[in-house]
């Protein structure tokens, strides 16, 4: 099944249609888990199984071959996949950035005794990101440019979030980019935060989406619609019950509860935020991460259509 | 040109032809037509920005592999012949051997920091074990009559190691090195997965996360070619030492 | 037997392979310069005895002393020709190198190594095969290469396990005389295993007959022939035939003694 | 005489105490380095903390299911690699023109990191256990193959002549002569391939989606920023490898017993 | 020589190892049921000849025919005892299994395999060693195990390369008679290589003498002794001594002829 035709999913004996959804092991996954726990998916006739993958590069092919018909990836990854000609469509919002820098889930840190003391100092710095040519460097560059910093000399070094503090303390990099729960960890280690790069680059913007393949959506429009409806409820529920989000993360991702308490949560909004995709796509083109903006008529599975 | 080379060339040409033919009209994004991959290989790796990455990787590979071979043969001969030493270190070796390089990288980073020495450590460690194990087993399986002979003439020490043990384990050590060579390439890539801004692996991982499939195939092609070349090189070395040991 | 202290002293030697007793209570002495031969039926334990004697194998009980010192590991002054000659040559070295190896191992000067190697190879008739590798030799040539290695070493004690089994009669006679000559020249002591009774009498000062396993020394025959041996003259001596019959009878006797007349080993 | 080299008797003490002493020594060294902050304590947690985390893991059920599922993945991929590698290796080792024809292709395929193939594998085989098994078998099969090719060279030519002299069929020659003679080499190959299969199984569990196992456990700990738990998983992986190897060694000793004592 | 068509026909056989000519223009026939022995100095090319004869080695030129068919691969009716017996046994099987192997390979019924194996082992005196592994046997026992394997096979043509080199005189005599008996019983043809001139005369119908390499057949001696042989009676016949001397002289002659009196092979 290489993405040619869509396989139609069949309901099981219990009347529920089994649906695998792939997620990365980050805190973005809260609403999805809550949706399963609260029965939102079941009520829509879906039996959702959440599977964990390390990164978008493994999730996108599994979405394309419909092994996992729906999956999560950040907007930049999604746009890159589309840019390379993969049959990827946006389905629903996962998580968004607010407008309060203090509440941002993402931050750049330096050592307390670092010669870099302000945002301007980051020009020419070596910054650790989880992967290059992706959401991290894009938001950092945009945020810094918004603050009038020249980013042309910045170097990005890819590594796991968990390896970053050690690299920073050893001086292998000048600054690190931490997202939750690593932001909270960096905070607790006493590193100095310099900038909240999500809020300062794309405030009030959705940055993570659930995606599917066009072929699947065509063959299973009701399932996609059902997923969208359930996901909307889950996002709403998550917004109203931040404590439940933290709980489910503690349970499903096995993160230390005390640490989770110190984390900031994303903004969880229902629907499919097309404007954010356009904003990010424009910036991605500008920063050379995709060759051109996609055809916006083609890439959304609009709810209720 | 002998039959062997001819057949080998034939095999390579056949494989390329199959690749070419099956990918020719491919619309599958993950399986791009071979000419595009070849373009990437020529333009990026051989003539363009990739050369710097290529050279860095090759240097790490050479250093790491050499360390592994020297240590593997040396320690292997020691451990293979000194029974209590084997007893003492075998479990520790087996423990370390089972840990994936990806899982070792954080520890290696703490030990060595980011950069070349960490990568070389990962490469050398991974390649060390196949050589070591083969040499140890080779020592174990020395023909008894041969050992009796050396003992009955009081051939001991360095001389025995150099003239009796080394040639006897030589085929096994070679087998270990043959296994280690492609492993070295794999570990080069793995070691550049994280904390690195240079190397074939870095290019490969970046291409992969941004779904640049042609670049991924280009890197794969490059790795395959490097493997072939290294293998040819080792074959030549093997024939040379073979002549030294078995004909001289 | 001899007034001088023995060069080799074997005392109540026994060897078990697992539960199988191969050697049982073997005691004898070898005098310096003596040619001591062990004969006995196939599978008796001759090789086992030689291996214990040279320190290649640890005996289950009993002791071996070389010049008053307990043997533990092969003494440096020994050279051994193993029965399994084809596997005792290092396949990756030429015949020449194989012969030179022990000498080089003990730091003999290059020129001397070359000279002794060349001489030993000529002595066993392998001058032309010096550059060949063991795999390119015939069985008899391999055996002679192993002999050459031992004689080039010029040991104090030469231990040989059926060293002439695979060579033709003429070569065999020549090699027998070669060993006798070398013994005179270097004052070597020789411990020898053979199946050929004529050979044992022709070569030896004493012949020990061992029984089937568990092996014991049943008789030691003193070979009181004139020291200077000659293939034709010596073998024509009436005493030679006597001794020959004596040894032969002894071997047959022991076989019958131990197993009775219906031993499967000898009834076909 | 092709008698076996005598195996020195060793006391049980020797066999257990010695390696234990080495392990304890190394742990003590690590502890010291970590406690004195020579190795930064927060990034290289001291063995005592790792062992405590390991203790917590051992009491929960999750670890044991993880181990079980990793072992299944390991066993299946190793099985595939051994059978395939040995069969093809024997073919290549005994039919020269096939070897000459295929060598370049094989040498080309061998250095391709199986983790680089992940997107392709996910697309064609799937991302769950199937994909992990494929990746691990892919990585291990080459090592088995090389070991098998070299092992075919270990057959004594005189024994080979004997087989020909008695007109043994190809299959009989393989069963009675070639395979037993190759066994020591194959056993080494299996042990190397086994480690690779385990390593790639764990790595695939980390990188592929939805493959439960020690790799996923390790990855969750890493994403949660819990380094101590992560190292506890590393220790478990090492112990699993050690256990597998011990079992293989015991089996190997049975299988090649005629060869004398081996590791 | 014989009226019946030969069972083996060797025609202008030559064999080179690289640039080294081991065999040169060998031609002879062997009649069905004949005992044909090849003797000659060590390194002459006897083993090479046997290997070409049995199809183990491809000759450089010339042909070998078995019952009128060109030999290419060892014919199924052959059993071969190789000179390097210790390596011809498979170390991972017991003696018993080693002997049974060719029978099992050719689908002989289980019970018959067991019976023939047991009988062959008893015949060579290895009944008690059936369960041992080759590594646990003495040299002579290994050699006898290889012989047992060949006779259990009950071949039409038995090819043996110095099969009794490592056994004691008594066992050797017994094994000689065993082969003669089996030949009568099964009407086997035997091609035999030995270094022992007495043995060659005692056993054979004809003895071929080969020269040093490049090896040729210099003479074929007809052994016109009564077919029924006996270790004592036959060897006491004056004709036996005559033939013995004839063969011996022939070997010596050939050596001298080819190499002159100062051949390194024979001057020590
Ligand atoms: N594989 C080989 N490569 C090169 N030369 C060889 C090879 N095998 C044998 N020879 C040479 O061929 C000659 C004849 O060897 P062969 O083994 O046939 O002798 P033989 O008559 O059986 O001797 P022996 O009585 O010692 O066993 C020898 O000179 C030997 O060196
Ligand atoms: N490694 C071993 N394990 C078990 N038994 C053995 C071993 N080596 C030898 N034997 C047994 O010990 C006995 C004596 O063997 P040994 O090799 O000493 O005999 P030998 O007198 O040299 O015989 P031959 O004249 O045939 O060479 C034999 O019965 C043999 O089976
Ligand atoms: Mg013996
Ligand atoms: Mg021969």
From TrEMBL, chain B:
Transmembrane segments: 61-83, 95-114, 120-136, 179-205, 211-237
InterPro entries for this protein: MetI-like (IPR000515), MetI-like_sf (IPR035906)
PROSITE patterns, alphabetized: ABC_TM1
Membrane topology: Multi-pass membrane protein
Compartment list: Cell membrane
The keyword Cell membrane is annotated on this UniProt entry: yes
Domain of life: Bacteria
Pfam families: BPD_transp_1
Keywords from the named record: Cell membrane, Membrane, Transmembrane, Transmembrane helix, Transport
GO biological process: transmembrane transport
GO cellular component: plasma membrane
Location of the ABC transmembrane type-1 domain: 54-238
Keyword Iron-sulfur: no
PANTHER family: ABC TRANSPORTER PERMEASE PROTEIN MJ0413-RELATED, ALKANE SULFONATE ABC TRANSPORTER-RELATED, MEMBRANE SUBUNIT
Family from the record: Belongs to the binding-protein-dependent transport system permease family.
Official protein name in the record: ABC-type nitrate/sulfonate/bicarbonate transport system, permease component
Automatic annotation (TrEMBL), chains C, E:
Molecular function as annotated in GO: ATP binding; ATP hydrolysis activity
The organism's place on the tree of life at top rank: Bacteria
Matches recorded under InterPro entries: AAA+_ATPase, ABC_transporter-like_ATP-bd, ABC_transporter-like_CS, ABC_transporter_ATP-bind, P-loop_NTPase
Keywords (A to Z) from UniProt: ATP-binding, Nucleotide-binding, Transport
Segments forming domain ABC transporter: 8-237
Coiled coil: none
Protein name per UniProt: NitT/TauT family transport system ATP-binding protein
Organism: Georgenia satyanarayanai
Top-level taxonomy: Bacteria, Bacillati, Actinomycetota, Actinomycetes, Micrococcales
Automatic annotation (TrEMBL), chain D:
InterPro entries: MetI-like, MetI-like_sf
Ranges that cross the membrane: 12-33, 71-93, 105-126, 132-155, 176-200, 230-252
Originating organism: Georgenia satyanarayanai
Keyword 4Fe-4S among record annotations: no
Domain ABC transmembrane type-1 per the UniProt entry, residue ranges: 67-252
Main location: membrane
Domain of life per record: Bacteria
Keyword Ribosomal protein found: no
Topological category with respect to the lipid bilayer: Multi-pass membrane protein
Family: Belongs to the binding-protein-dependent transport system permease family.
Protein name, per record: ABC-type nitrate/sulfonate/bicarbonate transport system, permease component
SUPFAM superfamilies documented for this protein: MetI-like (SSF161098)
Annotated Gene Ontology cellular component terms: plasma membrane
Entry keywords, A to Z: Cell membrane, Membrane, Transmembrane, Transmembrane helix, Transport
Localization (cell): Cell membrane
GO biological process: transmembrane transport
């Amino acid at each position: 099944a290489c993405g040619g035709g869509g396989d139609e999913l069949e309901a099981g004996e219990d009347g529920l249609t089994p649906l695998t959804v792939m997620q990365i092991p980050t805190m973005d996954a809260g609403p999805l888990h809550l949706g399963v726990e609260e029965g939102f998916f079941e009520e829509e006739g879906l039996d959702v199984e959440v599977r964990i993958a390390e990164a978008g590069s493994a999730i996108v092919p599994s979405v394309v071959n419909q092994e996992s018909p729906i999956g999560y990836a950040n907007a930049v990854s999604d746009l890159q996949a589309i840019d390379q000609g993969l049959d990827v469509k946006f389905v629903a919002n996962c998580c968004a950035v607010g407008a309060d820098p203090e509440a941002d889930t993402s931050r750049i840190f330096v050592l307390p005794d670092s010669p870099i003391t302000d945002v301007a100092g980051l020009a020419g710095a070596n910054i650790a990101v989880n992967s290059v040519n992706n959401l991290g460097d894009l938001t950092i560059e945009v945020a810094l440019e918004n603050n009038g910093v020249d980013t042309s000399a910045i170097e990005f070094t890819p590594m796991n979030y968990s390896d970053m503090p050690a690299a920073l303390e050893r001086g292998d990099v000048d600054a690190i980019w931490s997202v939750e729960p690593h932001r909270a960890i960096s905070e607790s280690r006493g590193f100095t935060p310099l900038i909240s790069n999500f809020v300062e680059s794309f405030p009030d913007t959705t940055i993570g989406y659930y995606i599917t393949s066009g072929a699947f959506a065509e063959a299973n429009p009701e399932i996609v619609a059902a997923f969208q409806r359930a996901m909307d409820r889950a996002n709403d529920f998550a917004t109203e019950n931040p404590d439940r989000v933290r709980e489910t993360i503690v349970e499903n991702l096995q993160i230390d509860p005390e640490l989770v308490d110190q984390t900031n949560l994303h903004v969880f909004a229902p629907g499919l935020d097309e404007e954010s995709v356009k904003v990010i796509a424009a910036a991605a083109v500008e920063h050379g991460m995709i060759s051109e903006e996609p055809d916006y008529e083609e890439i959304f599975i609009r709810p209720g259509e | 040109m002998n039959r062997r080379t001819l057949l080998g060339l034939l095999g390579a040409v056949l494989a390329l032809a199959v690749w070419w033919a099956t990918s020719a009209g491919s619309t599958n994004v993950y399986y791009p037509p071979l000419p595009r991959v070849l373009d990437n290989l020529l333009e990026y790796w051989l003539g363009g920005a990739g050369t710097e990455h290529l050279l860095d990787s090759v240097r790490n590979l050479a250093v790491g592999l050499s360390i592994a071979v020297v240590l593997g043969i040396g320690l292997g001969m020691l451990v293979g012949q000194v029974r209590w030493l084997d007893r003492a270190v075998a479990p520790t070796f087996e423990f370390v051997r089972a840990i994936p390089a990806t899982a070792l990288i954080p520890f290696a980073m703490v030990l060595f920091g980011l950069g070349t020495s960490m990568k070389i450590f990962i490469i050398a460690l991974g390649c060390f074990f196949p050589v070591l194990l083969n040499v140890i087993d080779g020592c174990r399986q020395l023909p008894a009559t041969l050992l009796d002979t050396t003992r009955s003439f009081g051939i001991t020490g360095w001389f025995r190691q150099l003239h009796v043990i080394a040639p006897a384990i030589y085929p096994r050590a070679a087998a270990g090195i043959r296994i280690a060579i492609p492993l070295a390439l794999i570990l080069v890539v793995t070691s550049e997965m994280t904390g690195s801004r240079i190397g074939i692996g870095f290019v490969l991982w970046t291409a992969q996360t941004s779904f640049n499939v042609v670049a991924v195939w280009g890197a794969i092609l490059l790795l395959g070619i490097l493997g072939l070349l290294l293998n040819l090189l080792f074959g030549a070395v093997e024939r040379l030492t073979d002549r030294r040991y078995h004909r001289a | 037997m001899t007034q001088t202290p023995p060069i080799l002293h074997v005392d109540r030697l026994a060897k078990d392979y697992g539960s199988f007793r191969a050697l049982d209570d073997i005691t004898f002495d070898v005098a310096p310069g003596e040619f001591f031969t062990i004969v006995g039926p196939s599978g008796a334990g001759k090789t086992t005895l030689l291996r214990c004697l040279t320190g290649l194998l640890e005996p289950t009980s009993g002791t071996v002393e070389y010049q008053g010192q307990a043997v533990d590991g092969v003494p440096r002054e020994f050279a051994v020709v193993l029965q399994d000659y084809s596997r005792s040559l290092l396949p990756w070295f030429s015949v020449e190198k194989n012969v030179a190896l022990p000498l080089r191992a003990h730091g003999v000067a290059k020129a001397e190594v070359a000279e002794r190697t060349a001489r030993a190879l000529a002595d066993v008739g392998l001058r032309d095969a010096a550059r060949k590798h063991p795999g390119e030799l015939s069985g008899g040539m391999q055996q002679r290469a192993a002999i050459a290695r031992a004689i080039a070493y010029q040991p104090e004690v030469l231990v040989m396990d059926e060293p002439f089994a695979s060579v033709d009669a003429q070569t065999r006679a020549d090699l027998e005389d070669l060993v006798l000559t070398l013994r005179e020249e270097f004052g070597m002591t020789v411990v020898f295993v053979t199946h050929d009774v004529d050979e044992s009498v022709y070569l030896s000062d004493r012949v020990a007959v061992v029984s089937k396993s568990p092996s014991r020394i049943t008789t030691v025959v003193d070979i009181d022939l004139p020291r200077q041996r000659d293939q034709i003259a010596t073998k024509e001596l009436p005493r030679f035939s006597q001794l020959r019959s004596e040894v032969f009878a002894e071997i047959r006797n022991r076989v019958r003694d131990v197993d009775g007349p219906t031993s499967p080993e000898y009834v076909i | 005489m092709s008698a076996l080299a005598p195996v020195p008797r060793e006391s049980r003490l020797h066999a257990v105490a010695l390696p234990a002493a080495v392990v304890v020594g190394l742990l003590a060294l690590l502890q010291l380095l970590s406690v004195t902050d020579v190795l930064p304590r927060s990034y290289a947690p001291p063995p005592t903390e790792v062992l405590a985390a390991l203790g917590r893991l051992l009491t929960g059920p999750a670890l044991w299911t993880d181990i079980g599922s990793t072992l299944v993945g390991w066993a299946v991929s190793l099985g595939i690699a051994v059978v395939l590698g040995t069969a093809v290796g024997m073919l290549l080792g005994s039919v020269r023109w096939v070897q000459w024809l295929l060598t370049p292709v094989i040498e080309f395929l061998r250095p391709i990191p199986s983790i680089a193939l992940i997107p392709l594998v996910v697309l064609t085989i799937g991302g769950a256990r199937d994909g992990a098994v494929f990746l691990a078998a892919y990585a291990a099969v080459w090592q088995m193959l090389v070991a098998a090719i070299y092992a075919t060279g270990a057959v004594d030519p005189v024994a080979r002549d004997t087989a020909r002299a008695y007109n043994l069929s190809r299959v009989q020659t393989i069963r009675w002569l070639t395979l037993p003679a190759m066994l020591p080499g194959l056993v080494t190959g299996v042990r190397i391939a086994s480690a690779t299969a385990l390593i790639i199984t764990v790595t695939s569990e980390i990188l592929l989606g939805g493959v439960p196992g020690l790799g996923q456990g390790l990855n969750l700990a890493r994403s949660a920023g819990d380094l101590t738990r992560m190292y506890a998983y590393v220790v478990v992986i090492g112990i699993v490898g050690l256990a597998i190897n011990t079992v293989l060694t015991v089996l190997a000793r049975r299988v090649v017993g005629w060869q004398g004592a081996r590791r």
